[in-house]
Amino acid sequence: MSGAGWGRWGENDERGALNLVDGQAVRRGLDAARRGQVLSLGLPVQSRHVPVVPPRPPVLHTMLVDGADFEAGARRGANGFQFADDHLSMACHSGTHIDALSHVARDGLMYNGIPAREVRSSTGARRLGIDQVGGIVCRGVLIDVLGAAGPMEAGRPIRVGDVERALGRMAVQLQPGDAALVRTGWLARFDQRDPSWYEGEPGIDVEAACWLADRGVVLVGADNFAVEVVPSPSGELLPVHLALLQERGVYLLELLDLEPLVAASAWTFTFIVAPLRITGGVGSPVNPLAII
Prior knowledge:
Elements: H1 23-31, E1 38-40, E2 60-65, H2 67-71, E3 85-89, E4 97-99, E5 119-120, E6 124-125, E7 136-143, H3 145-149, E8 157-158, H4 160-170, E9 179-182, E10 203-204, H5 206-214, E11 219-222, H6 239-248, E12 251-254, H7 259-263, E13 268-273, E14 283-285, E15 289-291
Parallel strand pairs: 7-9, 8-10, 9-11, 11-12
Antiparallel strand pairs: 1-15, 2-3, 4-12, 4-14, 5-6, 7-13, 13-15
């Protein structure tokens, strides 16, 4: 099955919709900052009270050297110098993270018809890896569906009409090269003691995903764990992941904290995402920044 975006930027393309972030889109993104205030939209990196979708392991943060080592007799420098050093182990799809185009495939094919066998245990993603992304600087648009529609339960699809109403309420139109961030309110309901939180969520359906892609968005993010509605109305497994990542080369950004934007009434802003340059990675933790 050929994807809707395959071949659009050539048969060897590995960046997908990010090709739309040209000089004009970057400048439009930079112009969206008005106050000069920087907001972090990422969750803290820690072992507790942050969602990590099972079976991914929790974050492990340990100290390699700390103050107690010097109190116990480790040698300080002649000038009294001492230091602390630490180690971090985490799944690349922990907390706030971006999916690479190599994250999903359908019937053995990833975006642009690239065989899924290009992702190997020994090398990671030899094609479509997160290292192909670089840095993303564009205009971000907050689509506050929660504010427009009210509280939503697990399994509640966000449809095209919901997206249109939210954008109309904010008097904003999407443009090619934008990043669309969808507020569902689901993250605020996370409870580490309740594993059922991972069993379903409100999110965009396939039609809304395609509608966003048709308007040239390069990335769709949300304050939930999969961006899309779970379970899907069709009963299929993660069909929005396939429609965006595999078919159209549009990236997904999951588990965003969008409340700072709402508190600031910031509907458009400069949006910056810089994935770690993980060679062969199929995703990366990120701390997205909004400059309002």
